[in-house]
Specification:
By secondary structure, the chain is of the alpha/beta class. The protein is built from seven helices and ten strands. A hairpin with a 2-residue loop joins strand 9 and strand 10 (217-219). The protein starts with a strand and ends with a strand.
Length: 221
């Protein structure tokens, strides 16, 4: 049984007098232990899709289920609860609280998910992501690549069933990219469904499922 089911998702935006059909009937299933990559040009709807899967935005048509529970069109409080328990998300714009240190960002994420304060596993993860020296830094003190790694550490710190990442390797060098790919593979091996929007061919090569999005629709490659 899939841990994420998205059924016929539609999302329209209305900037000015125009209408943008950002998603036009996207259906997908994500399974535990699988890495799914979505490829597509800029503007094809990747971030819109991730935001709907995380329940950060609501579809205009269709719905999302997480672990058999409907996420779409529920009150924000209910969506936030499902998100905290099941979902880790690395957003393109960053997912760190600006006025908290990296360590406190991780503690907050764990607390929201009802987990204990940082245990050895989390400290190890941060170390492997090269964040040990930045434990007490504020997000604004990090470089773009460090911010991406810190964002991933925060997204992973609640040990989510579903990990959603929006272009996690966009600002990192080739070495860091390999580290991030290894960390994503580990989360899959731990039984999570991992879903990544990316332009990285290296990441796509490691995927169990590769989806192609174009003009808001999934297409055959
Ligand atoms: P991608 O992540 O693949 O680059 P997006 O999901 O960000 O694509 O955007 C898909 C389309 O929807 C684009 O045409 C974008 O301009 C539009 N769009 C996304 N978010 C908004 C918004 N909040 N308001 C207006 N248009 C938006
Ligand atoms: Mg995007």
């Amino acid at each position: 049984m899939p841990v994420v089911d998205a059924v016929e998702l539609y999302r329209f935006f209305h900037p000015g007098d125009s209408e943008v059909a950002a998603l036009q009937g996207v259906s997908l299933s994500l399974f535990r232990g699988d890495l799914t990559v979505v490829l597509g040009p800029s503007g094809s709807g990747k971030s819109t899709l991730l935001n709907l899967l995380a329940g950060l935005d609501e579809p205009d048509g269709g719905y999302v289920e997480i672990a058999g529970k409907r996420l779409s069109r529920r009150p924000e409080r209910v969506r936030a609860g499902i998100r905290a328990r099941h979902i880790g998300m690395l957003m393109q714009s960053g997912n760190l609280v600006d006025h908290l240190t990296i360590a406190d960002n991780i503690r907050l994420q764990r607390a929201l998910a009802g987990k204990q304060d940082c245990d050895g596993k989390i400290v190890d993860l941060a170390a492997r992501l090269g964040l040990s020296g930045h434990w007490n830094a504020l997000p604004s003190q990090l470089s773009g690549g460090e911010m991406a790694r810190a964002g991933l550490a925060v997204a992973l710190s609640s040990e989510p069933d579903v990990l959603l990442c929006d272009e996690p390797t966009a600002e990192v060098d080739a070495d860091t990219e390999q580290h991030l790919i290894a960390v994503l593979a580990e989360r899959c091996a731990a039984g999570a469904a991992v879903f990544v929007a990316t332009h990285s061919a290296a990441l796509a090569r490691t995927a169990d499922q590769v989806l192609h999005l174009k003009d808001g629709r999934l297409i055959d490659a």
